[in-house]
């Protein structure tokens, strides 16, 4: 049987962020079915709350997870540690599980290597709090100690933020990534903006996150 | 009331992140010859000891792992009893329940 090319190009299915931030987008981009806000009106000087829910994420579970090579990358040995490589953040959750978040520029990789993984992109709300003052913002949101002085690289913490179970990755240079179950998304974001309003937090487009990512030393 | 619990994955955290799962009751009695009363006592009876006991906890607000630990309910401190050879009693299970 002959394989026929469809008469019309296939458009990706509509995918929607779990939250709508209360400010007018200045520039958006259509990406893999998502409407991605690149910049909002009057973003100010930060800190910013950035919706990254459209970016790819995976969970991997294996009895020998330490020996696995998802996307060809090594898994961090220590529980609670995170490693950034080739635009992916690999977070060691416990003895058998890791989560992988795409933070790099460009498209997420399609080849996952030899491991079985679960795509969790559409099941989470994923946010970044980025910019000067981020540690103070987090102090308003959780009693967790997210910035121990002996930590140089990114670190994974699993715990409550605004009483919501969350995976939190802290970078020492003014950025925190937070993933919670998708259903919390809208009210979670509203509560962050409300709780840290006096610290100047405002919604930021994806470029606010990209500027931080690309402007880091090293 | 508050105290801290050491999760085997996340470390020391506030007790309000956890759910209590009861004290360790040991394995279920063998089914053969098990009377209704014996089964009832194993399934339903709880002890309230003023000494260290092994307990199950669930880190629901964190990593989502079930684990067992030793705690003294009289002081809310984590403490293990004397080794088995010194007292004749001791831990029945070890480690996390992941």
List the helices and strands and how they pair.
The complex is a heterodimer of chains A (218) and B (98).
Chain A: E1 25-31, E2 34-40, E3 48-51, E4 57-61, E5 82-85, E6 88-92, E7 97-102, E8 117-119, E9 124-130, H1 134-141, E10 155-161, E11 164-171, E12 175-181, H2 185-195, E13 202-204, H3 206-215
Parallel strand pairs in A: 3-13
Antiparallel strand pairs in A: 1-2, 3-9, 4-7, 4-8, 5-6, 6-7, 9-12, 10-11, 11-12
Chain B: E1 4-7, E2 11-14, E3 19-23, H1 36-44, E4 53-58, E5 66-72, E6 77-78, H2 84-87
Antiparallel strand pairs in B: 1-2, 3-4, 4-5, 5-6
Number of domains of chain A: 1
**Strand order, sheet with most strands of chain A:** 10-11-12-9-3-13
CATH architecture of chain B: 2-Layer Sandwich
CATH topology tier name of chain A: Gyrase A, domain 2
In angstroms, what separates the terminal alpha carbons of chain A?
Answer: 54 Å
Mean pLDDT of chain B: 85
Give the structural class of chain B. alpha+beta
Strand order of the largest sheet of chain B: 3-4-5-6
Task: Characterize the biggest β-sheet of chain B.
Answer: 4 strands, antiparallel
What is the tally of beta strands of chain A?
A: 13
Structure in words:
The complex is a heterodimer of chains A (218) and B (98). Chain A is globular, with a radius of gyration of 18 Å. Chain A is mainly β and 218 residues long. In chain A, a hairpin with a 2-residue loop joins strand 1 (25-31) and strand 2. Chain A has a single domain (25-215), classed as 2-Layer Sandwich (Gyrase A, domain 2). In chain A, the strands form 3 sheets. Chain A has a 6-stranded mixed beta sheet with strand order 10-11-12-9-3-13. Chain A has a 5-stranded antiparallel beta sheet with strand order 5-6-7-4-8, with no helix packed on it. In chain A, strands 1-2 form a two-stranded antiparallel ribbon. Chain A contains 3 helices and 13 strands; from the N terminus they run E-E-E-E-E-E-E-E-E-H-E-E-E-H-E-H. Chain B is α+β, with helices and mostly antiparallel strands and 98 residues long. Chain B has a single domain, classed as Folate-binding superfamily (Folate-binding fold, 2-Layer Sandwich). Chain B is built from 2 helices and 6 strands. In chain B, the strands form 2 sheets. Chain B has a 4-stranded antiparallel beta sheet, with no helix packed on it. A two-stranded antiparallel ribbon of chain B has the order 1-2. Chain B is globular and about 45 Å long.
